[in-house]
Amino acid sequence: MPWIKFRIAVWLLALGLTSPVFAENAEQFNKESFSKANQALFLSPHFKAVKQAGQLVYDVLELRDDQTQIKDSVSLDIKFEQQHMLVQSTYLSGQRQLWVPEFTDPEGNPVLMWFLQSDTNEMARQNGGQWRHFQKYIKLALENEALYETVQVPYRGQVYSGVHIHIQPYVNDPERGRFAKPDFVNAYYDFVLAEDIPGGIYKLAMYVLPKGSSDVNRRIASRELTLRE
């Protein structure tokens, strides 16, 4: 099994989902039984708009709660060999760079897995506990509480039909009183996708705002990954 499909499988299983790629009895799989949010994020062919070799670059902007700012990037180099798509990823740079193997015929965009895993790791580091705890509440929010709306996504001089998914997974977490940094209880996530743009994912973001505030400019911490024009 290619590595990216394994990583997607791990997240699908952790989210209580399965996929035809992994189901032993695929004909019994019912995509419609999952929320629209989970379908868009985990059960859609993100690379369907990629027809030729090229590179996708995502700008990464992170603001930590000590107001340290990190700017970096994630790149996907795509090529085709013998009717297979090969994707080589470069995650961040310098001491932060992560090694990942080449992906063959990925179903989903690997930047989603990287974003979710790095975010849950950071939430655990900041607030104590295990990353799987934070993953669990992202799972519950995506399946049961996600705001899902259609949007217009501008990219390279064109406008594409897309979706915006919004969740605030920790506000009902029974363990929220144990967060080392209480403001992080209010963390929310935005996912912007458009199936007709290369890679299917336009923006992934997490924001922590002061309690009662809706002004992103006042954010305490944030992590944004945006497809470069």
Characterization of the model:
The protein is α+β, with helices and mostly antiparallel strands and 229 residues long. The protein has one domain: Beta Barrel (YmcC-like fold), CATH 2.40.360. Helix content is 22%, strand content 32%. The protein has four helices and nine strands. The chain has a nine-stranded antiparallel sheet, covered by helices on one side. Strand 5 and strand 6 form a beta hairpin.
* Main sheet properties: 9 strands, antiparallel
| CATH architecture descriptor text | Beta Barrel
Structural class: alpha+beta
* CATH fold-level label: YmcC-like fold
Beta-strand residue fraction:
25-35%
* Cα Rg: 17 Å
Q: Would you tell me the overall average pLDDT?
A: 86
Q: Level of helix content?
A: 10-25%
> What would CATH call the class?
Mainly Beta
Give the strand tally. 9
Whole-number tally of structural domains: 1
Major sheet: arrangement of strands: 4-3-2-1-9-8-7-6-5
Distance between the termini: 32 Å
Write the element-wise H/E pattern from the N-terminal end onward: HHEEEEHHEEEEE
Note poorly predicted spans.
Answer: 1-9, 11-28
- Gross morphology: globular
Tally of individual helices: 4
